[in-house]
Specification:
The protein is α/β, with parallel strands linked by helices. The protein has helices spanning 13-22, 49-58, 62-70, 80-85, 188-198, and strands at 3-7, 26-30, 41-44, 75-78, 86-88, 100-105, 116-120, 138-142, 147-151, 155-160, 166-171, 174-177, 214-215. Strand 10 (155-160) and strand 11 (166-171) form a beta hairpin.
Length: 218
Amino acid sequence: MTTVGVLALQGDFREHVEVLARLGVEAREVRRADEVDGLDGLIIPGGESTTIGRLAVKYGLVEPIRRFIAAGRPVWGTCAGLIFLARDIGGYDQPLLGVLNVVVERNAFGRQVDSFEVDLSVPALADVTPPEEAERPFRAVFIRAPAVKAVGPGVQVLARLPDGTIVAVRQEHILGTAFHPELTDDTRFHRYFLQMIHAPVGGWRPVTTPTNATRAEE
């Protein structure tokens, strides 16, 4: 049976666990280094990225998660999780995994009162969308959300806002979304992540060290 871990240090990890349970997937709340062992995939939830990073350092989780990703195991970061995965967050001094070759801007859309929802076109979800709903957009929830300002080689842009801002990316077996799919009834992003676990493109591949990220508008 597939086992997906959800980093449970802070933030909305319970919502991810609930979605996985609805999909019939065993979910494991991860708070210790040894709990990373044996996972098929790992979700890093939204919350407060600085707090998540500092707690990950405190509980010795940074290197085990890096090794997990380097071994080719799928990982998905939502909102704060995307920030924690990124190589560059514009000079903020906080712990990062540094494995996703993007530049991320924290709180790119303002404070919590500026939270919003928007319909996104996400062609990558086609394989987990019934044919009769092929044109259905994904309703994305943004709460003090980051944005991807630049992407490097090997990073695929999965979704943009109407103004072109990048809000979902994939680099091999690393997925990042600036929004919160776990706060909706639409399970397609979770099913897409499960598809990454079950049918990895080209098999498991180690994370390489890419060159600097290029500007998102290029």
